[in-house]
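Can't paste images in this forum, so I'm doing it all in text. The chain is below; anyone willing to post the predicted structure tokens underneath?
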Amino acid sequence: MDLTRRHALAWLGTLAGAAWAGQAAGAEKAAPKAADKAADKTKAAAPKAGGPKGAAKALPPDEEAWAELAEGNKRFMAGTPRERTLVPLRQELAKGQKPRVMVLTCSDSRVVPTLAFDQSLGDLFVIRTAGNVADPVAVGSLEYAAAHLGSIVLLVMGHEKCGAVAAALTGEKPHSPNLRAIVKRIAPAVKTARAKVQGDALPAAAIEENVRQSAADVLKRSAVLRQMVEAKKLTVMLAVYKLESGEVVRLADA
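Text version of the structure:
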């Protein structure tokens, strides 16, 4: 009878151990499932990459080019230009150039686009004339850059205290026929500015109007560039350079 009782107790102990082991195994299986459910909830709550709440929307190529110029201008104003290793860059550019941005600006020695935008060799295709007036040679140069080098932005940039605009504001006739040609091209912008403002605000207004007129003249004189603008292969942007601060202020587009 004692033997039977011992066997029964042993048998009950075995059953209890098996039950405990089963519960432990069930808990182990349940834990991963609970973790998986929690992970699923976390994934569901997280914004999807590439969706409206995901990565920032990419800029179109022309605005991306401007954003790069604007960042470079900030570095220029702060006096913290990027360090560049020019020798290998120069050697690479000997194979060819692909400047994304053309700049039509003034010949003034204080206005240097490559420095003002903290760019380097091969970055900008720059045309400089007094008063940023584009004659046939300048227009042809812009056509070459846009049609053959792949430039996608034309930035027309005037600047504060422009001597050519100041000469046009006086209304006097220069003695040289070449200087008269420059003033003649700027005179309509001065007339437009006078119709809008007077007094101390006039020079700045005339400079801005001259930038707009220069851009309009380029497109008027170039079917090549005009067609590229219409096909959205070229964007014209306008700006004014501040001499003391070094800031380039973008104007409303043409």
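The radius of gyration is 35 Å. Confidence is low (pLDDT under 50) at residues 1-52.
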